[in-house]
From TrEMBL:
Membrane topology: Multi-pass membrane protein
A Pfam family this chain is assigned to: Mito_carr
Location(s), subcellular: Membrane
Organism: Dunaliella salina (Green alga)
Name of the featured protein: Mitochondrial substrate carrier
Solcar repeat spans: 24-110, 124-211, 224-313
Superkingdom in the source lineage: Eukaryota
InterPro entries recorded: MCP (IPR002067), MCP_dom_sf (IPR023395), MCP_transmembrane (IPR018108)
Amino acid sequence: MATGGQGAAASSAAAQPVHKYNFENVSKALLAGGLAGGISRTAVAPLERLKILMQVQGNDRVYRNTWQGLLHMARTEGIKGMMKGNGANCLRIVPNSAVKFLTYEHFSREIMDYRAKFDGPGEMTPLLRLAAGAGAGIIAMSATYPLDMVRGRLTVQEGKGGQYRGIWHAASVIMREEGFRALYKGWLPSVIGVVPYVGLNFAVYETLKATVLEYYGLKDERELSVWSRLACGAAAGTTGQTVAYPFDVARRRLQVSGWSGAAALHATANGSTAVAYTGMMDCFAKTVREEGVSALFKGLVPNCMKVVLPYIP
């Protein structure tokens, strides 16, 4: 997404030739970002898995709250079970970051060149940085979506004898039994959810940062303390994810739509059934009709904890 740091970098580059990133520098940045992202995701993997399990479960809730859910996972599947799906999540960090980084830089260069040619100074405004960030986020998410789909299935399957033995086995089974298009189940709500998430994240971060600068009488954002930046980032991330959260619930439910491996999570008085949805709107309609509006926010608490924890030094 287009963060404040990316915006500042793009803005400062407007008055001079756009910096050309060589392969070595980009590789180092992606490697460092991939390692840092892998470590942070692994640290909150149990919360991430719990969030997804809560998102796809039906009315008879096995996972009732964060603490009970973590204890249930630990008791029934052990530490290894709490980390299910983390491998696929970590695997997609580098390609996702690479596509997002390079796409954002390309969009920024094109926009600045266009403005320099037709509209005077080739500067990136906040709105243009937001658009570039949203576009880069959508393209990166789309490019690595099959990994997210596989990760969703691996995360949801319970017990020690699951249908899928690993990332590549899951991908091959899904394509063989459901077709290649199944790897993109839930793609539409993911794309739509990027817009409010990126927009609110950016807007809240910039607003909070400006408020803190004014409150303390500071003139430059570089004067902000680390704690202030972390607090603004955590608040912005939580706000953006909360508003876009129903789309994330729809994504996860569509990823396991009709899959027998998720049937146990939809246990009812009539037995376990694999709930199937025809599309995003059908998913929203059935979820609200059968479980209420609150079902669109299942797993929100562990999700917010997962967002905030990386900001705590």
